[in-house]
Amino acid sequence: GLLKPKAIVVLKEGQGSDHLFEDLKHHVQASVGPWKYPRWVEVVEELPKTATGKIQRFKLRD
């Protein structure tokens, strides 16, 4: 099937997520095109990383 992008976001300390989805959507639409904007935005405290500091992308796909 068709894959739709999902944004996984780590907020800076003290930053709110009130307008995050709309701001992110408009930024991506302007940068790469209106069909590629993330349909879902998930806010996490930190990204899963390996012992060497690389992001474990396979864990984000769940």
Molecular structure report:
Helix 1 (20-31) links the parallel strand 1 and strand 2 (40-44). The model has no long low-confidence stretch (mean pLDDT 87). The protein has helices at residues 20-31, 57-60, and strands at residues 6-10, 40-44. It contains two helices and two strands. It has a two-stranded parallel sheet. It has a single domain, classed as ANL, C-terminal domain (GMP Synthetase, Chain A, domain 3, 2-Layer Sandwich). It has 62 residues and is of the alpha+beta class.
What is the domain tally?
1
Q: Might you state the CATH topology name?
A: GMP Synthetase, Chain A, domain 3
Strand neighbour order, sheet with most strands = 1-2
Fraction of residues in H or I helices: 25-40%
Question: What is the 3D shape?
Answer: globular
Strand content: 15-25%
The CATH first-level class comes to: Alpha Beta
User: What class, by secondary structure content?
Assistant: alpha+beta
CATH superfamily: ANL, C-terminal domain
How much is the average pLDDT? Answer: 87
Rg calculated over all Cα atoms: 13 Å
What is the number of E strands? 2
Instruction: Give the biggest sheet.
Output: 2 strands, parallel
- List the helices and strands in order: EHEH
Tally the helices: what do you get?
2
Query: Whole-Å distance between the termini?
Result: 16 Å
Low-confidence stretches: none
Write the CATH architecture name. Answer: 2-Layer Sandwich
